[in-house]
TrEMBL record, chain A:
Locations listed in the record: Cell inner membrane; Cell membrane
Family: Belongs to the binding-protein-dependent transport system permease family. OppBC subfamily.
Membrane topology designation: Multi-pass membrane protein
Originating organism: Ruegeria spongiae
Protein name per the record: Oligopeptide transport system permease protein OppC
UniProtKB/TrEMBL annotation, chain B:
Protein name: ABC transporter ATP-binding protein
PROSITE patterns from the UniProt entry: ABC_TRANSPORTER_1, ABC_TRANSPORTER_2
Membership in a protein family: Belongs to the ABC transporter superfamily.
Location in the cell: Cell inner membrane
Primary localisation category: membrane
Lineage: Bacteria, Pseudomonadati, Pseudomonadota, Alphaproteobacteria, Rhodobacterales
Segments forming domain ABC transporter: 11-260, 279-528
Membrane topology annotation: Peripheral membrane protein
């Protein structure tokens, strides 16, 4: 409804670019907005979570292997006494009453044959459960004493893995790695794909033919084989992952951009630019690429989850990131191995992954609606 | 309103309102319009784009966009069909009320043959068997006068011309013997001669089948020739209604008078005979496709077959012809936007065959304005970016401020506020966009502008303003125009020399008055008649 009879009057309302209009439409899409919120939270958790988490993702707690997720602190009360007993076994003293109270443990020790050696408190310190052990030897009877030590209060909200590492911290670091691979590999694919596709589509003719046949050749390489080859030659490392995934995913992007370019090429504004004498490179940069942006962005939001899944797949096969670093795929792979006795090891990483992918896909969907090329 | 039963009224639209929910709040496209159609009557709804005339019909047929809402009443034979559930509505629409649309190119499914497309509704809605449906389709195709209907039934839409597709659409609409045919600008995308044929077909069918026609158009020429009664709409409201004759002879409102007066007028005198030749082409040939060769089919098609043209300073050459006659191709070939053969000379310099880089120094003198004001402006650039793009190429020494000044000046030149330069093209109306496109050309201070149907997508009243603008710019900057159009009225108003093209050849050329008043070729005469004497043609054919 923009046509007016009086043709020279100013346009009503405030000026708004297509992007602003798209954002406006996106903002009305509740699922997409919720997804953006979730993604921001997950990204922040990935970036800052590992710094703030109480445990390092690589710290091993040998006493707490595959412990269940719990809101209470570890060790739990019934575990303290056996832990103390096993810690003091080598001290060769008799243990009396053991009281646990407010994160403190009080152990009465006695010996029949010898005086209590005050150094035995170190046995307790060596255990990761206890710290600040102090021994008080009964002044009246040196064969009796009391050891007081604070009990460590470790929280494993999501339990620990098969090596006794905190699963929550590991999920945080894996989020960081997975998001990083998702973002970087997508950026690689995007840059190469858009430039390659736009060039091929714009130049056309024989150049287009050669460029797209090269893409076809790349397509026909079996991906896993390609990655295994790279890993065999260069060893496992993270940069290689970006390269491998990016090198495969740009092909789709190139084809999509080329298709878009072919249709844009026939639009009159491109012809108008040619009539102005604008050079081919400037036309691609100013007219073609900005107008493919809508499609490209939509595809990008769908590419990120694809890349994350791809990385998980590679990690599942053991071709991905290296220990102690981890990614969601590695965690899920480990969880799958321990599915019977520690189902939580599968559940939490899988839930995180699901939420992440859901949010990305919902956002992609919302963007598709918002950037719908029908409403110019 | 009194609830009278008008038994002769096929369709009654009662105080309809259509509201669209947009990010800027509700927009009322139609504000309380009432109209009716009697049995066997042809009613025209006229108005400029944006007047809401199509939206009324869309809401009546349940085809409103998802953010639109309609209130009021639409009665078909006394039964309210507005906002009926789709299932009930489908019993009426397509069967009793059917619709044909503007774009015959896109309203047929490209994947099905004509026969499949026409048979399906007959088999699904009409419950006919396949063989009976086929027989009926043949009958319908004969009814709409498609030549060789048996063969045409097996063709795909792309094999047919625009006029033939529109005939197929009409056949589809007639399949279930409707009482009312709603035609939404059915001839706007067609050439004048084909437009005359289609209108004639509609008139004949109406006389034979006794249906009513509700005709939506912005072209008053058609209305005068075709309709019994007229509703004039403006900004979502009814401006005026009455018998066609009465409205055309004694319009009651200024707006209707303005619409009637919007026919392009005036003429241009030829430049001095010794005026400098700006751009000339000799024996220009444009061939598309690739020649045949080993294992390859010959796909060559010659669109322009050896044309000579010489454009003098301050001259306007009008190039007219039906679509597919090669007139746009010729314009582009002269500007070296298409590979072509022949000799093209610009200001004494041969420019034919120059590549992109060598052509660049001449580009600022040779500009082009395109047909579609919606497609020729990049949607993601601001107006000032669009206008100054050429300056970046041809005057790279300019500072940003100088460029902004030039852009502001060009905007003023074309009658737009310079303060609008930071807006985006989609915020402007069609006429304003065409002004921006013209500003983009004149900012480079060109000497020759090829105007490729610059007014075809615009309303008549806006067209008139653009014509005035082109005239003024020509005088102020001593421009030479190559004006390509199928609209003869506009060509007559703007150009001093006319070339009539057909199938890539010039069939007639000469001074404007001479060609228009005294055409020597039958083809030219047909074009003139279809454009200026639509009424005569219809009357003659129906008699």
């Amino acid at each position: 409804m923009t046509d007016m009879t009086v043709d020279t009057g100013p346009v009503q309302g405030e000026s708004r670019s297509l992007w602003a209009t798209a954002m406006l439409r996106l903002r009305r899409n509740k699922a997409a907005m919720a997804s953006i919120f979730v993604l921001i939270v997950l990204a922040l958790a990935g970036i800052f979570g590992p710094m703030l988490a109480p445990h390092s993702y690589s710290k091993v707690y040998p006493e707490f292997v595959k412990v269940k997720p719990s809101l209470e602190s570890y060790p739990q009360e019934e575990q303290v006494i056996p832990a103390a007993e096993s810690a003091l076994r080598r001290a060769r003293v008799d243990l009396g009453a053991i009281d646990v109270e407010d994160g403190k443990v009080r152990i009465e020790v006695s010996s029949d044959s010898r005086d209590i050696d005050p150094r035995i408190s170190r046995y307790l310190d060596r255990s990761s459960v206890f710290s600040d052990a102090e021994i008080t030897i009964d002044p009246a009877d040196p064969k009796k004493g009391v050891i007081e030590a604070s009990v460590q209060q470790l929280y494993f909200l999501m339990g620990t893995d098969a090596n006794g590492r905190d699963l929550f911290s590991r999920i945080l670091i894996s989020l960081r790695i997975s998001l990083m691979i998702g973002a970087l590999a997508t950026a690689v694919a995007l840059t190469i794909g858009v430039i390659y596709g736009a060039t091929a589509g714009f130049v056309g003719g024989r150049v287009d033919n050669v460029m797209m046949r090269f893409v076809d050749v790349m397509y026909s390489l079996p991906f896993v084989f390609f990655v295994i080859l790279l890993v065999v030659f260069f060893g496992r490392n993270l940069v290689l992952m970006f390269l491998a995934v990016g090198a495969v995913e740009w092909l789709d992007m190139a084809r999509i951009t080329r298709g878009q370019t072919l249709s844009l090429r026939r639009r009159e504004f491109v012809q108008a630019a040619e009539a102005l004498g604008v050079s081919g490179r400037a036309i691609v940069r100013r007219h073609i690429i900005p107008n493919t942006a809508g499609t490209v962005i939509i595809y990008m939001t769908l590419l990120i989850p694809k890349v994350i899944l791809l990385e998980s797949f590679l990690s599942f096969l053991g071709l991905g990131v290296q220990e102690p670093l981890t990614s969601l795929g590695v965690l899920i792979s480990e969880g799958a191995k321990n599915m019977r006795n520690a189902p939580f090891m599968l559940f939490y990483p899988a839930a995180t992954m699901t939420i992440l992918l859901f949010a990305l896909n919902f956002l992609g969907d919302g963007l598709r609606d918002a950037l719908d090329p029908k409403d110019r | 309103m009194a609830k009278q039963i008008h038994s002769d009224r096929v369709l009654e639209i009662d105080n309809i309102r259509v509201t669209f929910d947009t990010p800027d709040g509700a927009v009322e496209a139609v504000r309380g319009v009432s109209m009716h159609v009697r049995r066997g009557e042809t009613v025209a709804v006229v108005g400029e784009s944006g007047s809401g005339k199509s939206q009324i019909m869309m809401s009546a047929m349940g085809l409103l966009a998802s953010n639109g809402q309609a209130t009021g009443a639409v009665r078909y034979r006394g039964e309210d069909i507005l906002n009926l559930p789709v299932k009930k509505l489908n019993k009426i629409r397509g069967a009793k009320i059917s619709m044909i649309f503007q774009e015959p190119m896109t309203s047929l499914d490209p994947l099905y043959t004509i026969q499949d497309q026409l048979c399906e509704p007959l088999m699904v809605h009409g419950g006919l068997s396949r063989s009976k449906a086929r027989a009926r389709v043949l009958e319908l195709l004969k009814l709409v006068q498609i030549p060789d209907p048996e063969r045409r039934m097996k063709s795909y839409p792309y094999e047919m011309s625009g006029g033939q597709r529109q005939r197929v659409m009409i056949a589809m609409a007639l399949a279930n013997d409707p009482d009312l045919l709603i035609a939404d600008e059915p001839t706007t995308a067609l050439d004048v001669t084909i437009q005359a044929d289609i209108l004639h077909l509609l008139a004949e069918l109406q006389a034979r089948l006794g249906m009513s026609i509700l005709f939506i158009t912005h072209d008053l020429g058609i209305v005068e020739a075709f309709a019994d009664r007229v509703y004039v709409m403006r900004k979502g409201q009814l401006e005026e209604e009455g018998e066609t004759q009465q409205i055309f002879q004694a319009p009651a409102t200024d707006y209707t008078r303005m619409l009637l007066d919007a026919e392009p007028s005036g003429q241009k005198s030829a430049p001095a005979a010794d005026a400098e030749v700006m751009l000339s082409g000799k024996d220009v040939v444009v061939t598309f496709g690739t020649p045949g060769g080993f294992l390859r089919k010959d796909t060559q098609f010659t669109a322009v077959k050896g044309i000579d043209v010489a454009l003098h300073r301050e001259q306007t050459i009008g190039i007219v012809g039906e679509s597919g006659s090669g007139k746009s191709t010729l314009g582009r070939a002269l500007l070296q936007l298409l590979p072509s053969e022949g000799r093209v000379v610009y200001l004494g310099q041969e420019i034919s065959g120059l590549d992109r880089a060598h052509m660049r120094p001449y580009r600022d003198g040779l500009q082009m304005v395109f047909q579609d004001p919606y497609g020729s402006l990049s949607p993601r650039m601001t107006v000032s970016e669009i206008i100054t793009e050429g300056l970046l190429v041809h005057e790279p020494g300019l500072s940003q401020r100088e460029r902004a000044e030039r852009a502001a000046q060009a905007l003023e030149d074309v009658g737009l506020e310079p303060s609008m330069r930071n807006r985006f093209p989609h915020e402007f109306s069609g006429g304003q966009r065409q002004r921006i496109a013209i500003a983009r050309a004149v900012v480079l201070r060109p000497k020759v502008i090829v105007l490729d149907e610059p007014t075809s997508a615009l309303d008549r009243s806006v067209q008139k303003q653009v014509i005035e603008l082109l005239r003024r710019l020509q005088k102020e900057h001593a421009l030479s125009y190559l004006f390509i159009s199928h609209d003869l009225a506009v060509v007559r108003a703007l150009s001093d020399y006319v070339m009539v093209m057909r199938d890539g050849k010039v069939v007639e050329q000469g001074l404007t008055e001479q060609v228009f008043d005294n055409p020597s070729q039958q083809y030219t005469r047909d074009l003139m008649r279809a454009a200026f004497d639509l009424r005569e043609i219809l009357r003659e054919k129906l008699a």
